[in-house]
Amino acid sequence: MRKNIVAGNWKMNTTLQEGIALAKELNEALANVTPNCDVVVCTPFTHLTSVVNTVDTKKIGVGAENCADKAAGAYTGEVSASMVASTGAKYVIIGHSERRAYYHETNDILKEKTLLALANGLTPIFCIGEVLEEREAGKHFDVVKKQVEESLFGLSSEDFGKLILAYEPVWAIGTGKTASAEQAEEIHAFIRKTIADKYGKEVAENISILYGGSCKPSNAKELFAKENVDGGLIGGAALDAASFMGIITAF
Ligand code: PGA
């Protein structure tokens, strides 16, 4: 059966010292709690090793927010999937809308990143989602279908089954505007059906599809109650241990 997952995405926030303090606080908050979901924190590259060493990694998985689309070599400033894995991190966010929009990451580039992440034993948290104009034009189903098809449908069903997907409507990220639970459920069900058509019902039923975009303690319960919403990818609310805990305990 598919897992419930709450994953934090710290983005470009916190100094190393602040990040360690946040990880410590979260670790302490979870020490005597058995959450009904897997917990993951995705941090800047510079923080990975320290966060891995700060938390109980049996309780809190650690991930990167990105990795390179090349394996190694003369790519100044890039960080490879094998480097991420060598820190002890187990996850990597791929295709976040901010990477797509600001750093021009295409479906083809994201396909390479996904292959490298998998080859290095990392679990990709692969993000898809439409911008406001696409939603208003009723194109959101086509947009997410194309993102999944072009980046992921070349994978074997075994590899596809290792992914976590995150549906994040771009208009809801950091805006305070959340998709309603019904909007989330509608598109999550569509994504699962798209996967079932390609890989069969079993693969589709077993994959976790997270919702992201202004998810917070006050709306997490309603979102997570939906059949096809298996957790959240959390930005702003993951920067505060108490509010992140409020989302984790929504399960
Ligand atoms: P947000 O970000 O929770 O701050 O809207 C979510 C994300 O971008 O992953």
Describe this protein's structure.
This protein is α/β, with parallel strands linked by helices and 251 residues long. The protein has a single domain, classed as TIM Barrel (Alpha-Beta Barrel), CATH 3.20.20. 44% of the residues lie in helices and 16% in strands. The protein is built from twelve helices and eight strands. Strands 1-2-3-4-5-6-7-8 form an eight-stranded parallel β-barrel, surrounded by seven helices. The longest helix has 19 residues. The two termini are 16 Å apart. The model has no long low-confidence stretch (mean pLDDT 97). The structure holds 2-phosphoglycolic acid. 2-phosphoglycolic acid (PGA) binds next to strand 8.
Provide a brief overview of the structure.
With 251 residues, this protein is of the alpha/beta class. It has one domain (7-248): TIM Barrel (Alpha-Beta Barrel). It contains 12 helices and 8 strands.
Task: Give short descriptive properties of this protein.
251 residues, alpha/beta, TIM Barrel, eight-stranded parallel β-barrel, 8 strands, 16% strand, binds 2-phosphoglycolic acid
Main beta sheet: strand number and arrangement?
Answer: 8 strands, parallel, barrel
**Average pLDDT score:** 97
For this structure, the CATH topology is: TIM Barrel
Assigned CATH architecture: Alpha-Beta Barrel
